[in-house]
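note to self — DONT lose this again. spent like an hour looking for the file last time. sequence + predicted structure for the chain T wanted, 182 res
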Amino acid sequence: MTGSTAYRGSMHFTCGYGYNLVGAKTISCQADVTWGGRVPTCKATCRAGYQLIAQTCIRVGLEEKDYEDAQADCEREGATLAMPKTKELDVALRNVIVNKYGKDSKYWIGLKESGSWLWADGSSLDDHDHHYQGWNPGEPASGIKAWFESSDCVQYWSGPTDTPMWDDTACGYNLRYICQES
């Protein structure tokens, strides 16, 4: 919202990503100290098949694919694998998984090791402003597990916590996945 609240002044309204403005973009202050029209609102919107969760449009892919095919499926829609870079989004995604699909399922998210941990958008896990990480205890894998299994991609996995958290595993497994609009 920008503009002036003085008599004859105008206020201009816009909405953030994932929201559409409902109502007039501009309203004016009247002589009787009222607005010349209704104050608009912002309504959440996501493309068909996606839902708004923690200010992010996401879609859960229920067909099982390996990491690369899951990422390619998201990219065909102009999306990426989900990137839970904040605790708010991470917890919201976990809740969707548990409440809709049960706690024992595994889902790819957009985090992969390529010398360092990189998100699907190319940003580094360590570079994020909040430095949030939602690993299961003992993850990412090291020692004997990492030696026996190439652990390059990240999934939501319930493991020892009984709630989905990040776990690195081989990229070739066929899992469900979560897409996030770019």
